[in-house]
Structures are given as C-alpha cells and as structure tokens.
Amino acid sequence: MTTDAAADIAAAGQRKRSERSGRPQSTEIDQTILKATLDVLADVGFDALSLAEVARRAGSTIPAIYRRHADKHQLVLAALKSELAELPIGVTDTGNLRDDLLDLAQRIATALTARRARLFAGLVLARRDNPELLDLLSTELHRIAVIGWQEVITRAVGRGEALNDAVASSILDDLPGAYLLGKTLLEGRPPEMRHLEAMIDKVMLPALLSSQDNADRS
Amino acid sequence: MTTDAAADIAAAGQRKRSERSGRPQSTEIDQTILKATLDVLADVGFDALSLAEVARRAGSTIPAIYRRHADKHQLVLAALKSELAELPIGVTDTGNLRDDLLDLAQRIATALTARRARLFAGLVLARRDNPELLDLLSTELHRIAVIGWQEVITRAVGRGEALNDAVASSILDDLPGAYLLGKTLLEGRPPEMRHLEAMIDKVMLPALLSSQDNADRS
Questions:
Q1: A186 and B181 in contact by Cβ < 8 A?
Q2: Is the ipTM of this complex over 0.85?
Q3: A171 vs B202: CB contact, 8 Å cut-off?
Q4: Is B95 left (phi over 0), alpha (psi -120 to 50) or beta?
C-alpha cells in the first residue's frame, strides 16, 4: 500500500511535469502501456510477460512503468481492468424478449475476440500462482454478463410477458456467458449467428417460458 | 512421414531390445514420457515446453523422446491423444432421463480437473502458431461430449419418453459441454452439484420436453 501510494504520488508528479513540458499526455502513455501489457499477455501469457517487452512495445521505459505500477502483478491487474471497462454492458431495447436476448448474445459474441480468448487462456494458466488475477476477471465478467441478461428479463416482465422467474434467476447467473465462452475457447472462434439463435430459441426461451412445474422439479 | 516411419521402426527395435534385456517395458517408458509432457504442458504451456524438461521429469533422455516422436509437436499430439483416451465416454443406464443426464454431467465435471483446465488453456494460447493442436482437442472433446448426450437421449426415446427431437439434436451438439467447460475456466474449479442440477432441471429438461411450437420458432 505504501509502495502504491508512493507510486501514485510519483505518477501524479510525472503527469504534472509532462503537462508543463509539452510531452505526450501522461494519460495517453498510461493507456499505451496498458495496451502493450494486454498484447504481451495475449502473446505469451503471464509467466513469460516481461516489463522490458511491455516497455519496448509501448515505446516507453521500465522506470516509466514502475512510476505507474508497483510491480508486474499490479500492471497486469490495471491492464485487465482497462480491458474489462471496454466490454459492452448496455443492451438495446428492441421491443421484444427474443430480439433483446439476441442483441445481447451478439454483443457478447463480438466481445469474445480471439485476442481476448488468448488473454483469458494466459490468465487461466497463471492462476495457480496468481489467483487474484483470474478472480478479478471471473468476478467482473460474471457481473457484466449477469447485469445484461437481468436487464433484458426485467424489461420483458415490465412489458407483461409471462416469464418463469424461478428459472430466470438461475439460468441467467451463468449459462449464456459460460456457454459462449466455452464454445469460443473450444472452437477457437466466436459462436456464429445460428448458434446464438439456437441458444435463445431452443434453450433460453423454452426454459424462461416453461411452467412452474418444470422449475419445481429441482 | 518418412521420419515417422523411421521413428516407428526405431521404436519397435527399441521395444524388442528392451524386452530382451529386462529393462523397464518400453510401453511403460512411452507412458511416462507422455505423462511428463502433459505435466510440463499444464505448468508452462506449449511455447515454453522443452524436451529437456520433459526428459528430466520422465527420468529419461532427449534421444529417447526423439526415438518415439519426430518433434515437439508430434510429442504433444501423442500426449493429448493419450489424455483424451482416458476421458469418460460411457454413461450408466439409471433407468430414467434425468438421472442419466445427471450421471453424464457429473462424469464431465469430474473429468474437468484444474490440471486439464490449465492444459487446455496452454493449448489455446499456443493455437495461433499450432492450429492442429487445438483442432484435435476440439474435435475429440466435441465427439466425446456429443456421443454421451446422444446415447442418453436415444435411451430415453427407447423407453418411450416423449422428447422434442428437433431440440435434442441442436442442444446436444455443444451446450452442456461448452457450458461446463466455460464455467470451469471462468471460476477455476469444476461446477458444483447444484449447477449440474440447475443445468438439467431448468434448462435441458424444459428444452427437451418443450412443444414443437417452441422449436419451430427459430
């Protein structure tokens, strides 16, 4: 914490100096360093990631990285947070449940780029020694995924569509997100439109519209 | 191919010599080398895997590996095939659809060990330069998963349970396997019993027992 605080103060000083001297905006360098970190992470994973390589790709220096991040671990955490902040959460209100679900599924499929799949794989591999990294990723992805589906369902209920709430809360927790991620990793490419439609028409809608009898079975 | 054939002949000669001289059975060394390869792969991924480290962990030598496998790529392919051969395919006939589904889901969840998740992540990361590796894994895992679920469904139809076949063929292609894999990777541990039950009771059974109307919607 003390190291972090010192780094923050150092970084703030750096920003002020940079603004005065007309060098590139420090926030721009911040972003370039985080982007380079994500690139190296997607290429070689966490263990093989070196600050020297990050500095080289960012056109920066190792001390410049240390002025912003206490260590490699904190650098990767910051890079991940910036990547996660770019993920699509909001969903379009199309006026009906099926199209709302499809819109969200498409946003998630689009977000699941090959680069993000590699990034994620690199973190899974690093997990044993760095559980916080994947925990952050899991928590954030889970939060993002659940919020989107819950918004779609709430809107459908508001429209007066008769949904099985008992199913909604359980199915939305993780099924669509985990399925799309698993499929992307298994096949090395994002799911196609017909897979998104099959998930919604043959799995999610029948479950959401099922009678309470089915839901009570468990 | 010529190199492979030469290696096969060399390996066969090696086996004969080994049997005569009372040294450990060559098939035992074969397995030890493949197991060491999987261990190294799960630890450091494909790129950082060195034959020297595999030889060290197997208590063997680099030439002994080259007598069996043309190169690192072939070694990893052979190790993967041996790992996949151990995965559970068969399912118990419990006498009813729900328990058959649960039994298969439990087998898959049990097979999804942390080591296999790391192994898989290491291959996803290596995919860009070695598409055959993940293609083999995808094809085999897909085949294994689909065969199991299809067997369960066929048995339920044989018992006279009224299933929606149009849904069965699409949902079984990849949903349960991809969901369980995605959830395992996302959370770093195999799904718990309550997740397997939720998947079956709230998603699979409602879909499988849904009317043809729902299936025709797509």
A1: yes
A2: no
A3: yes
A4: left
